[in-house]
Amino acid sequence: MDVRIERTRRALQEALFALAREHPLEEVTVADIATRAGVNRSSFYQHYSDKETLLADALDAAAELARANLPESPEPPADPPQALFDYLAHLDENAEVYRRVLGPHGSAVVMARLRARIESIVQEGIATSGTPAYEGLPLDIVGAGIAGSALGVIEAWLARDPRPPVATAADWLWRVLLGPGGSGTTPAAG
């Protein structure tokens, strides 16, 4: 990709991410994003069709920076992997943005992108692990179920006031993902 294109997209992503920390998404205009990014409105539309797609890209980029890709391993470890802590720390640092986009008035585009990302990680992990735990179930069904559970835990954690620490959220999420009978840590209070 052309360096200028990448630079413009990055500037737009960073601008919207910063604005989404300050204001509800529905209050942020394309003009606000373009001004913050230092580009004109036509540049915005050359790269993005709408602000929701831009926000989904911005959140993907932020997750990548937070090293939020779960490692592939044949068996899930008993304790949450560091990548999960890293991702939840990123969510915690940007809780207002994620509350807004994952909440009842949030972004369907962002939610779909996040769900698809989690489903893909789950399906790949199950396919490479050879685990018999989901034998006889279609991978897309397992991926959808686990992704829905993960998003539910994340939304509920972000909605709590006061919000429990990242370590507690990681424990909750990991225990839900492992399911009953899965190896896990001791229960965390919340």
What does this structure look like?
With 190 residues, this protein is an all-alpha fold. It folds into two domains: 3-50, Homeodomain-like (Arc Repressor Mutant, subunit A, Orthogonal Bundle), CATH 1.10.10; 66-178, no CATH class. 66% of the residues lie in helices and 0% in strands. The protein contains nine helices and no strands. It has helices at residues 3-22, 30-37, 41-47, 51-65, 82-93, 95-102, 108-129, 139-159, 166-178. Helix 1 (3-22) packs across helix 6 (95-102). The N and C termini lie far apart (45 Å). The model is unreliable at 184-189 (pLDDT under 50).
Q: What keyword list fits this structure?
A:
single chain, 190 residues, mainly alpha, Arc Repressor Mutant, subunit A, 2 domains, 9 helices, 0% strand, disordered C terminus
What is the typical, i.e. mean, pLDDT? 85
Which sequence of SSEs, written as H and E, runs from N to C? HHHHHHHHH
Low-confidence segments, given as residue ranges, are 184-189
Strand content: under 5%
How would you concisely characterize the structure shown here?
This protein has helices spanning about 5-20, 30-35, 40-45, 50-65, 80-95, 95-100, 110-130, 140-160, 165-180.
What's the helix and strand layout?
Elements: H1 3-22, H2 30-37, H3 41-47, H4 51-65, H5 82-93, H6 95-102, H7 108-129, H8 139-159, H9 166-178
Helix pairs in contact: 1-2, 1-4, 1-6, 4-7, 5-6, 5-9, 7-8, 8-9
